[in-house]
Amino acid sequence: MKISIIGSGYVGLVTGACLAEIGHSVTCMDINKKRIINLKKGILPIFEPQLENLVLKNIKNKNLNFTHTYTSITEQTIFFICVDTPNNNQNRPDLKNLFSVISSLGDIIKKDSVVVLKSTVPLGTNQEVHKRLVKKISKKKLKITVVSNPEFLREGSAVNDFMRPERIIIGTDSVKARDILKSIYKPLCRKSDKIIYMSTNSAELTKYSANAFLATKISFVNEIAEIAELVGADMHEVRKGIGSDSRIGKDFLYAGLGYGGSCFPKDLKALSYFQKVNGLKSSIILATQERNHHNVSSFVKKINLSFKEPKATSLLVWGSSFKPDTDDIRESLAIEVIKSLSKKFKKIYVYDPEASKNTREFFHDFTNVAFVKNKYNQISNCAGLVICTEWKEFWNPDYKKLSFLKERIILDGRNILNRQDVEKNNFIYKGIGT
Length: 434
Ligand code: UDX
Prior knowledge:
Shape: elongated
CATH topology of the largest domain: Rossmann fold
Number of helices: 15
Number of strands: 14
Radius of gyration: 24 Å
Strand order of the largest sheet: 3-2-1-4-5-6
Largest sheet: 6 strands, parallel
Strand content: 5-15%
Helix content: 40-55%
Bound molecules: uridine-5'-diphosphate-xylopyranose
């Protein structure tokens, strides 16, 4: 099928490349001309495992092409909207980009079309988009269907998440649009039908509540972790104990610094904003956010108390991205930790396998935050090691090299090291609830 993707950022590129990979003829559109020029040459604006290969392969076999003009997609009838919807400073999602796309689409659409919203949008937006499109094309006598098809892509495993989805949510009342979406996703539903049909409003709420629930799970375990520390319990054991109950499930029970990234924080803020403006009580969602912020201050306090003279002490920090396998530092709690430590300690040396460039730009004006190319550089100038992101390369450190740490203290903000191993090597170990 011929498909246009509007917005070639993170979600748009993954969606476009994967739809091309499963045999569709995809045109990715973006108003950012430079981005499109680069994409045509196979240069990607983001780092995401497997994505570059997929883009290059599908450019070569002509399933995937790029454009920065709407005029190149006027003959198309299926449009996936993948533009960003960042929160403005009142925590309200900013729909400026989305509505501008809708207005441009209204100008160029020539045939009956299906408009699929992948971006996470505030409740009721699909209906609003439909209203705006119908108004815009009122003279053209065309039928437009708007479908809510939220993305569930995790950074770092987005291609895999797209190709092996646990579910595909399709929100629309139109039988014709359901059939079109069903054929688009058919190659992903060979073993079992992953599609769940619902209304647009339910699809929008499904996306928000999935993210809010996952974030709540994380904040919940982090609250329990604080209790575990007090009573001398171990969160690794507690996690296994509670996760073996199928009603609770094994995933998303890892205590640590908490959640970051471009989705969870934004979606929770948007949901609590929606509750506030509609006079609804927000308790769980607010508490989840509060606990997540609290994690940073309590970890920084723990680090502070571990050293006698912080102002005369330098630290080595491993990890600044919000999670492993990404260079994304948006809403990264590691960044918050580094920021706080830089105010209290003499010097902070930071190492991250992929996010160094972004982190360096962020800390441009901080005179006591420096960056190292190798994770053991500057170790003899540091008293302790602080782990903020669970990159795989941090899980089995070389304790011989770490022994140059002046005070041999390791603060593990992601609980990835084994206490026994660390202590056997004569280091002091402090994790989260362990
Ligand atoms: C998330 C959702 O998972 C995805 O479905 C949605 O579409 C977009 O938002 P992403 O933001 O890429 O994806 O991150 P995810 O892998 O879900 O992790 C979110 C954060 O939670 C990370 O900072 C991670 O370190 C943290 N986390 C995760 C924990 O602290 N503990 C856990 O047990 C799991």
